[in-house]
Design brief:
Layout lengths: L1 H27 L9 E2 L5 E4 L4 E7 L2 E5 L8 H9 L7 E5 L18 E5 L3 H5 L7 H5 L12 E3 L4 E4 L2 E7 L8 E5 L2 E3 L4 E3 L5 E3 L8 H18 L5 E3 L6 E2 L2 H5 L1
Parallel strand pairs: 4-5, 5-6, 6-7, 11-14
Antiparallel strand pairs: 1-2, 2-3, 3-4, 8-9, 9-10, 10-11, 12-13, 14-15
Length: about 250
């Protein structure tokens, strides 16, 4: 009897872990491998911390970050700043593609930076609310990764920092306040889409997302906005895959 009880407990404990592992495998397979840190369009730098890709955007007088990765020490970001003779205080702005913990972990290091996000993710980033995705709904925000958003964005808003302009687009679906950012030919999609090895874009990952159907619609709407604006996209950057060259993948999505 005792043995049967132990087996039942083991099944109850291990089954969710196994299901999560299978889900992660199916979600991540076939994605473009995340490269080591590399230069991208417009002088931007891809920063890979082993799980999440962030983007360093230098400008005259400092730098901005799009997301802060999953590593609370920010080692990869700090190393890239050091290569440019910059330190944490030289980061003047942080733009969050959304408020999940694997995109906010190192934000606490940059105390001089204004933190920008869309209103739908302000509470998520601060740990006061959770998104509706299966996994984020189950896992609370660690205290060390919580961040206060001081600047709320509007769709199409342009933020100018030195010689760099950063355009914010609302792309809800992965989370309510998910964002894409465009700067000097680099379109940064965060978790709104990932690049496949085939060169195609895959929509937001269902395991982590509020509403994949809404995400797909948002990506279609984003394509229309970019065409209407006449923006030239040289590179598409994602948060958990390698980048893609040009806008072909987004146009074909």
């Amino acid at each position: 009897m005792r043995k049967k009880v132990l087996i039942a407990i083991a099944v109850v404990v291990l089954l969710p872990i196994l299901s999560l592992g299978v889900g992660l495998f199916l979600t991540m397979r076939g994605l473009q491998p995340m490269p080591p840190n590399e230069d991208l369009a417009g002088g931007a730098r891809l920063v890979n911390d082993g799980w999440t890709v962030s983007y360093l955007l230098p400008f005259d007088g400092g730098a901005a970050l799009v997301d802060c990765g999953n590593d609370e020490t920010g080692a990869a970001i700090l190393d890239e700043l050091k290569k440019r003779s910059l330190g944490p205080d030289d980061v003047k702005a942080i733009f969050l593609t959304h408020g999940h913990a694997d995109h906010t972990a190192a934000c606490h290091l940059f105390t001089k930076a204004d933190v920008y996000a869309f209103s739908g993710d302000v509470d998520i980033a601060a740990g006061k609310g959770r998104s509706r995705g299966l996994l984020p709904r189950m896992v609370p925000m660690p205290d060390a990764k919580k961040i206060t958003v001081g600047k709320t964005l509007a769709d199409g808003q342009v933020v100018t920092l030195g010689d760099r302009e950063i355009v914010a687009f609302a792309v809800p679906g992965h989370t309510a306040g998910s964002a894409a950012f465009l700067s000097k030919g680099l379109l940064m999609l965060g978790d709104d889409a990932q690049a496949e090895t085939t060169g195609a874009l895959r929509p937001a990952m269902w395991l982590f997302s509020d509403d994949v159907a809404q995400d797909k619609k948002s990506l279609h709407d984003l394509t229309a906005k970019l065409k209407q604006r006449g923006d030239k996209i040289e590179t598409i950057g994602c948060a958990h895959s390698g980048p893609l060259t040009g806008a072909k993948a987004l146009d074909a999505f």
